[in-house]
Amino acid sequence: MEKRRRPIVRLPGEGREYRMPTMRAVFHADGEETDDAYSVSEWRLEPGSDGPGAHSHEANDEIFRIVEGTTSVLVGEEWIDAPAGSVIVVPAGVTHDFANRTDAPAALFNVFIPGGFEKNMPEIVKWFEENG
């Protein structure tokens, strides 16, 4: 018998937060909650800050929606200045990154398919603490 997932409700200020020097991630749905089908997170960038660095995921698609400010997003080899309301879909294997090159805060809503990305967050936070 297939296990039914339960609805997930996160009110403002809820979720699992990961802080890095100039970036903060809050995971709203992941892991056991979604059977690793997807993860849902929000990423906030301080003004004038870099994101995670150029990378790709060989088996995962990502959807980004800019929810605050203007975020510079690398898609393949092109940087795009995406204002709030923009949606960017990054297929598996495509290099991507994001940064805030403005003097105002920026935020992105992210869906990672399939899920499981949050398992990397403790190591990512540690890397930023040691190299940030």
Q: How does this structure look, described?
A:
The strands form 2 sheets. The protein has a 6-stranded antiparallel β-sheet. The termini are far apart. The chain has one domain: Jelly Rolls. It is built from 2 helices and 10 strands, in the order ββαββββββββα. It is globular. It is mainly beta and 132 residues long.
Question: Would you spell out the secondary-structure blueprint of this structure?
Answer:
Layout: E1 16-19, E2 23-29, H1 31-34, E3 39-45, E4 49-50, E5 61-68, E6 70-75, E7 78-83, E8 87-90, E9 96-100, E10 106-113, H2 121-131
Antiparallel strand pairs: 1-2, 2-3, 3-10, 4-9, 5-8, 5-10, 6-7, 6-9
Question: How would you write the strand order of the largest sheet?
Answer: 1-2-3-10-5-8
- How far from one another are the termini? 47 Å
In angstroms, what is the radius of gyration? 15 Å
Q: Largest sheet, if any?
A: 6 strands, antiparallel
Q: What is the helix fraction of residues, given as a range?
A: 10-25%
Output the keywords.
single chain; mainly beta; Jelly Rolls; six-stranded antiparallel sheet; globular
Give a brief rundown of this model:
The protein is mainly beta and 132 residues long.
